[in-house]
Amino acid sequence: MKRVIRLSAPHMGGEELKYINEAFQTNWIAPAGDNITYFEKSLEDYLSQNVKVAALSSGTAAIHLALILAGVEKGDEVLCQSLTFAGTAFPILYQGALPIFIDSEKDTWNMSPYYLEKAIKDRLKKGKRPKAIIVVHIFGMPAKMDELASISKKFHIPIIEDAAEALGSEYKGMKCGTIADYGILSFNGNKIITTSGGGALITKKYSLKEKAIFLATQSKDETLYFQHSNVGYNYRLSNISAGIGRGQMEVLSSHVDKRRENNKFYRELFKPYDFINVFSEYISNIKSNHWLTCISLSENKGKKTVSGLLNCLNNNQIESRFIWKPMHLQPVFKEAVYYGEDLAESLFNSSLCLPSGSNLNQENKERIIEVVLNYLDA
Ligand SMILES: *Cc1c(COP(=O)(O)O)cnc(C)c1O
């Protein structure tokens, strides 16, 4: 039986256990301790732009806190990219707010500036003023931040950058997650680096980082006893998980390089097939970490389809998945308003994610080549 080639498996660097052992030796087996401090510091250094990072229990928790810091309350509207993972949008519901979903544009698959502006104008006309915009860098591809930021400025609505999939991606020399008002990262098991589970909130001010940590540790007042004037959450990262994160930061750059090599591998593999597009950068001053490489199929004479290829790969123990099903098509969001056409939906219907781990080796690639060519040339 062949071993399964995973879509995006955890990939340890080697030093993670050393930092976990430090936590054991000092008995900081808690959501507090040195590993958290060092992990946050190494993220701040890596991201630069003077950002302040709060390590949290998940990317979803980070989005929730970003919404709270942006002042989103019950009944408010939040503009959100439709083509994304549900973790982007669920926190809007946690706040009792209403998501307004926005279509993608074709170059980056991310939020369409055109439909964002159209949506804002229409909401204002209806007497609503959206409180925040959640932009995603999907599969690591940087969104069109200049265009989106100028709309955000024009209407005074802050942007939360969901960089859960985009640690290491860059937009015009800036790291994704550091460009807008707030940014979030995820260190879930399948992401470019993992802490087994975890996330982070990126802010521009130390006072906002402090506020996030206050909210993430049950909003305890500065009293000698347990007094709480605000609702709190238990969202801090564990010191054990942060130890994994410290080790992972040492190999982040090489993980990015390897995922970018995977994207190049797929571009070569699919070059002879003019009906297959490998999702890559459309201009040279952006850099995707290529967290997952995706392909889109257009209509073709041989009647090759995404589900045909997906079945073929999965039958051969090669994990492949459909891209995220857009949020405006999800049963749980059936009440939500949507601005756009059918681009997100047609990308969903025509695209696949392929194995993209930083630990994908030559033997794995040869198996992938064989199965893909078998299907396409049959
Ligand atoms: C993974 C992911 C999240 C959620 O992060 P968790 O750490 O799993 O909570 C949010 N948004 C996107 C785009 C993601 O891929």
Automatic annotation (TrEMBL):
Q: Which residues form a coiled coil?
A: none
Per UniProt, the keywords (alphabetical) are: Aminotransferase, Pyridoxal phosphate, Transferase
InterPro entries in UniProt: DegT/StrS_aminotransferase (IPR000653), PyrdxlP-dep_Trfase (IPR015424), PyrdxlP-dep_Trfase_major (IPR015421), PyrdxlP-dep_Trfase_small (IPR015422)
A family per Pfam: DegT_DnrJ_EryC1
**What GO terms are given for molecular function?**
transaminase activity
Q: Which family does it belong to?
A: Belongs to the DegT/DnrJ/EryC1 family.
PANTHER family in the cross-refs: DTDP-4-AMINO-4,6-DIDEOXYGALACTOSE TRANSAMINASE (PTHR30244:SF34), TRANSAMINASE (PTHR30244)
Name of the featured protein: DegT/DnrJ/EryC1/StrS family aminotransferase
* Organism, scientific name: Hyunsoonleella aestuarii
User: Top-down, what is the taxonomic lineage of the species of origin?
Assistant: Bacteria, Pseudomonadati, Bacteroidota, Flavobacteriia, Flavobacteriales
